[in-house]
Amino acid sequence: MWTVEPLEVTLEERCELERRVRAQTTPHRDRQRARVVLLAADGVRGRQIAREVGLSAQAVCKWRIRFRDHGLDGLEDAPRAGRPPLYGPTDRLVLMAKVTSEHPEFSAQWSHSELHEAMVDAGVPISASQIGRILAKDDVRPHKVEGWLTRRDTPEFWERAADVCGLYLSPPENAVVLSIDEKTGIQAKSRKHPTTPVRPGRPARQEFEYVRHGTASLLACLDVQTGTVKARDIARNNSVNFISFLEELDEKIDPSLEVHVVLDNGSSHTSKATTAWFGEHPRFVVHYTPKHASWLNQVECFFSILTRKVLRRGEFSSRQDLVDKMMAFIAHYSESAKPFRWVYDAKVAA
Question: 186 with 291, same domain?
Fold first, then answer.
């Protein structure tokens, strides 16, 4: 009876083939081919290999010969020609140049149809759908834009940031640390139709249309060491109202304590009148946050809480109703307030 000699497999090749058989991530076809070679190396007949591996006898013979002639490389699929590309590298470069360097004549951003027209004018009649596929493959998204704020990375920025963070992390003795800012343009809105309450399997449903009843502005002060908040409704955000608020704080705070105030660079905080008032009250020590870094002002954290808890889903029948509900929330919040746990120190990594 005619037989086939066992395949010659080196130790390194056997180790690699056995690894492919064991590995959970090996593709099924690669595992089959590795088993064919290992069984053939052990002298198993071709038909029996075909039954065990699940291939035809012709396929077993093919992979035996491929391995004999080319080793492990022979177990890889041969390159497939496929359909030739309709648009070559030059056409794609023209498309990318238009997307990344040019702008449409009458629009603020490219659409696929506008790119199609521009490419036709450039002598490349590529369809809008094909343009979409090419851009998606290269992860180019002309319909999206991300915003950022450029700030100057200067020593002054980090000095101010470290000064403010130092107050939070190590408050001075015999002193009060206050974080003050305004929240302006708060809209008093009520829904045109009643909101339906939450039900099993369905969230609350809020009418999209609303009725405006004016706007309100809030001037708030957060005690960094206790977490309590004091606030006042103001008609305008100007130095007159700000100084009046400072005078109210000056009367209520123990005269023996120094007052450290954290402010951003708003006009009411840096006006001549405000600067003069601070000059007349030396126990008030002002710490300005760096420009474009008002997030270092802790009262902004409270404004975020106020927005989530009261404003975002609240309904207000009038401006006064809005003010009353905000003040009621602030009083309730201060009863059980705790200081924020601040960990950022604004130190520049060496």
Answer: yes
